[in-house]
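Sanity check

After download, print the first record. It should look like this:
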Amino acid sequence: MIFLKTEEEIELIKNSAQVLGKAHAEVALWIKPGVTTQKLDLVAEEFIRDNGGIPSFKGFNKFPASLCISVNEVVVHGIPGSYAVREGDIVSIDCGVKLNGFHSDSAYTYPVGEVSLDLMNLLTATKKSLYKGIEQAVEGMRVGDIGFAVQNFVEDKGYSVVRELVGHGVGRDLHESPEVPNYGKRGKGTRLKEGMVLAIEPMVNLGVKTVMQERDGWTIRTTDKKYSAHYEHTVVVRKGKAEILTTFDYIEKVTANTSLMVEVM
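Expected structure tokens:
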């Protein structure tokens, strides 16, 4: 069942998203060579709880942490631990916040120090593809239009789109209907209606599209071990133009004029 949100509910999701955006920025301050992914997770959880929220991911289907931290060839669902971030890594941070009964969800991929031009181009293209998808999240369009926009953009640049993992509805539950793939055909899939709240989240690989799951039951990595990037916003379907509820503004204030900054082309 798809739940259309009232304006009051959308405002509550937006409030959650503000805490989420600031939590991302707190984590961004720590992303540098030598920091462990466990430390990043602790920073996020402390900030979220100090601001009245609950980490959406912790305990979700028994996930053990507040952040999914996915480094290099890990696509999503990386479990924080003892790994110390290195110069040249790319680190995807996926985070959710529950506040006043409603979830928000967003992800951002960071370059650590100096990374190759190929990787910076991957990050920039993935981030741009997110906004290409969001442009289609308007009343009267279909879920397939979102996926087509993402897929068409990244494949034109020689990258591949992960098929097994998709975006989703967001609200009182972290994962609601409909699913929002990052590939598809125009004019196909669920018709979009004003008030739908969606997490749109391109996962884009430098190499092949195929992925595998680690024995921990969570970590998803590329089968060819080439790197992957991930960006995500929570948006509400509107007439004419989607409204983005989450924000990268706090992240980008922190990362401005540093190698962590990823531009939109």
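If your output differs, re-run the checksum step. Summary of this record's structure: The helical segments are 7-28, 37-50, 117-134, 143-156, 249-255.
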